[in-house]
Structures are given as C-alpha cells and as structure tokens.
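GGDEF domain-containing protein, Cryobacterium glucosi. Tokens?
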Amino acid sequence: MNAPPNESIEARLARVERLFWIDRDEANQAARDWLIELRVVDIDGANGEFVDYSSVETGLGRGAVARRLRVLLANISRTRGDPSRSAAEVQQILAWAERHGEVALQSRCHDVLGSVFEMVGDPALALEHAVLVNDLIDESEVPLMRAAARLCLADALGSAGSFDESRRRYNEALRLVIDDTDTNIRYMILNNLAYTEYLAHNHVAALETVEQLLALSTANSRPIGMYARDTIARVYLTAGRLDEAERMLLPAIETANDDPNPDAVSAALVTLAEVYRIQGRLDAAQRVIDQCATLAAGHGLVRWLTEVAREQAEAYAANLDYRRAFEAYRSYHAQSVALGASENESRGRILEAMFQTAESRRESERYRELAERDPLTSLHNRRFVDEHLSVAAIRSGEGGPCFAIAMIDIDHFKRINDALSHAVGDEVLRMLGEILKRAANRVAGGIAARLGGEEFLLILPGADAAEARERFEEARSDISDYDWTPITAGLPVTASIGVALAPEDGVQASDLLRAADVRLYVAKRDGRNRVVHTATVQASVSR
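Tokens:
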C-alpha cells in the first residue's frame, strides 16, 4: 500500500497501525514495505536487528518508526500462533524504547507482551503489562489506540478473575470507539465482554452483550468471526437456546478445512459437539468430535485435543458406554496434565527467550559503552562526540534546543610530561577529567569528553551565550584553582578554552568544532588560561 502524497510520518504510522484492526494481511504488507524503505536489516526478525538510525526527521526518528513497525509485525505474528518469538523481539524493542524515552513505543510493547502472557496462561504477568500499557498511553493518542489499551487491561483483569473491573474497562473501551465503523475492535470488545460475563455466570448480561454483537454485525453487514460464533453459541447454550446455538456453529463444519484460523474452528466444533450431545443427537456429536480431533491433531492444537477428549468422554457416558467413557476420561486427564506442562513449558520458553535477549542487550550495551569511553579518564571519546554532536546540531538547526560547546586544551602540557614524566601527565589528565565531569553535571544532560591527547570537549545542552559564558569561565577557574601540588609538585596546570554556540555558529558538528578550535587557537595565542567566545578575548586572569 503506497503512502498518499505529502503524508506525514505520524499520519502514515497511525494509518498502518489502524490496519491491524481492519485487515491484518494488509497491515503486515504495509509494515514490511515501509521497513524496506527504511532499509531495516533482517525484515523477518530472525535476529531482531535494525539499522540504528540516529538522524532526525520531522516528528519521529527512523529508529522509533522502524521499531513501531516491528512491534506491529510481532503482534500480527502473535495472533497467528507464534508468541515466543514475538515476546523476545518486543522485549528487546522495549529496552530500546525505555533508553530513548519513546513512551508511545513502550506502551505498544507492553500491549503485545500482555497479550502474549494472556495466551500462555500467565494472568499475573499479563496484568502487569496491561497496567503499564494504560499508564504509558497518552490521552492525545487516537481513540482506537486508547481503546486497544483498555481492551488489553480488560482481558487481563477477566483472566485474573476481577470481573467487575474487567467489565468497566470493556465499557470504557467501547465508548472510545462507539462511532468507529471501519475497524473490528468493537466486535472484539463485545465478544470478549460477552465471554467474560459467561465466565462470571452473569447469564443475562452475557445474553444482552451477544445480542449487541449480533445487532452491530447486521447493521454494518459484517460477517461474524468463528471466535465470536463460539462465544455466542456458549451463551445460547447456557440459556437453553440449543437450536440457535447449533445454527451459529454450523459454519464451523463447512469451513473446517479452509478456515485460516483452525484454533477458532476447533473451539467452535467442541461447543457444537456439546450442543448435539445435550440434544441427544449422539451420532452427530461423534462426527463433530472426530472432525475436531483430526483438525486439532493436524495443527498441533494441544488445548483443543484435550477439550475434545473431555467431550468424547461425555459423549460415551451419554450413550451409557461407561467403560469407554472411563477410558476417555483417563485419556482426558493425561492430556490435561500434559497441557498444563505444555503451557508451563511455553511460558518458560518465552521467559527464557526474553531473559537471553535482555542478557544479550546488556552485553551489547557494555561493549558499546567501552567503545565510546576513553580508557584513561572514563570520559566519552571522539567516537561518542561525533555521533551525538551531529544529532544535537541537526536538531538545533531545525528549531530544537540551543547548546554550547567548549574545546579545552591544557596549557604547556608537554612541559609537564617532559619535566615530571608521562605517568604524572596521565594523572593530570585523569584529574582534569574529574573536574570536567563536575562541570558537565552543572547542566542537565551535560557531556564531558576527551578528544585525544590533552584536548577535551564540554557540551552543555540548552545553554545560550550568557550561560555559556558563565559555565565555561567556571570550568576554567576550576582547573586553574585546583591544588595540583600533590600531582605536579607545584607546577601550575591551566587550560585554554574556545567556545561555539549552536545554531549561531553552525548546524553541522564540523562547523561547531571548527569555530571552537579557531577560538581555542586565539586563547593560546593571546596568553592562555582564558576563554574565547568570539574573535575577541574575553576578560580573565592569566597566571
């Protein structure tokens, strides 16, 4: 699906995410097409890798967009029966979102993780993530996304047995999308609410809800999905409306071999077998049981193989064949135990995959941190500066916050090395690093770096000309006033400083560094131990 001309990144992302609630095949294709445009590594997510874009676009950066799309693909994969891979990848994306303050992305990650743990039967973790979805989602988000967050929480609360709270969140979600006729979210909300009322034995409320679901389907000429048919039939079954339950489920027989969602069809067939058994139509019940067993076995649907074993035992008992009923119950019990073990194993695989992903990320971050640190002073190095200064300069040039940089060079450093030894020189560099760290910490987000040799850099986000003048003069004074005697045996240590401001002195990192370097040269030329903000030397005491 091609993007409309002049469509903003935010609008395109909202449109693609909305497709999840309209046509998941289209959503899958649209997300993949966009990822190809962004040149993301490993589209299929086998390694969860991305091209780490640090350039800035209007609104969202490419790194955030790519990860939003990957979360969407993981969510589609989850709905198609691949929760463990989805969880591991989304956990990795969540860590990135937390590091970069991408709140909307964090919310979407927790939404997927909550649904994954709902699928594998861990209500505690499902609820934990669902609460975070709603804590993080902004009220400025479109109603569809806020409704999806409430739906996630309602499902988790229902699974945890908090039916009143679950009901309240379903109704909140429904109100948010009451006029949304394009997506299928209202159908899902009503279906899940009806099933929750059924589980809570609120039979009147469950029946009212399925009638709303049917009326909505009729009004919008939208076919009822197989999961919804199963919910409606279960409610009808409880109300004694067996014929209506049967009619609702008959399409499961007709589409069993063609339906793209065998899980939903298997659920419907189990319910239909129960309807036939209660009606006394035991031959019909047996045919459906056999059909369901074949379908579930063919797709490895352990849960429905277990449920159909239970229904088989009930059917034998209804036919007064107690020996076979006993054997079928034994089989059901064994499969039920196996199902519990399988669910535990599934949860374990997901948690292990998430743990391994987190461990891998921590190792990657540790090596990245080492690669961006100067080993002598522990300050950031030139590699770190090149990456982060470029981003800050571009942002400033596009109307973002101003900032100031200072290039700092130790005066007569060769004399220290020659007179006192290189070991003493290293101690001077280490101590200067500590002084500059303190200087950087006076401003939120301040950065101190060693560019190489005796040359250092300070970056002060948000600092204008007046604050830069004050902060860099403080730094110069901190260096010259420090008691260097224990290290240098009385030999003074001072520094010359050249300053540049963004965006006044440029919107490219190279322009800013060049301007600061020229002013550093002027400071050296005109006597050292001073700060130069322009071509004119600012007043400072030379010692």
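The two ends are 69 Å apart (CA to CA).
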